[in-house]
Design a protein that fits this description.
7 helices; 142 residues; disordered N terminus; elongated; 61% helix; mainly alpha
Length: 142
Amino acid sequence: MDRIFEPTEWKPKASAGKRTQVEMPLLAEVQHPAVLEMFVVKQATFSGALNHACKHSGMEDQEIADAIHISHGYMSRFMRGVGQQWAKRLLAFMRVTGSLAPLQWLADQMGCDITIRSALSAELAAAKALIAEHERNGRMAA
């Protein structure tokens, strides 16, 4: 009984042998990601966003599953609700930790930045615009 047991690779062959995945190559290959209008984002669920992304890609669920190296069954479950559950867990994680690091990492992987919305900053921007307008009108009158 002098055998050394290695952990069984349960991952598909494309990722077998890799203990960590620094970045997902599929995300790095996206040339021009589709961006939803903000009013649609505010009304959508994560599952709805996944479905929109599938439709936009023109690919079937099974084709996407093959491309990201997951089983067709898991892809189906992910689209029907598992993805929504994971999104809610990620949101809860970020709220509990008070960190946007996971969101920033995801945005960076897609070549995007995040912008923090704040009522105070929106009011400040509106006030600055109003001041600038008054200054322009004052110069025109003089």
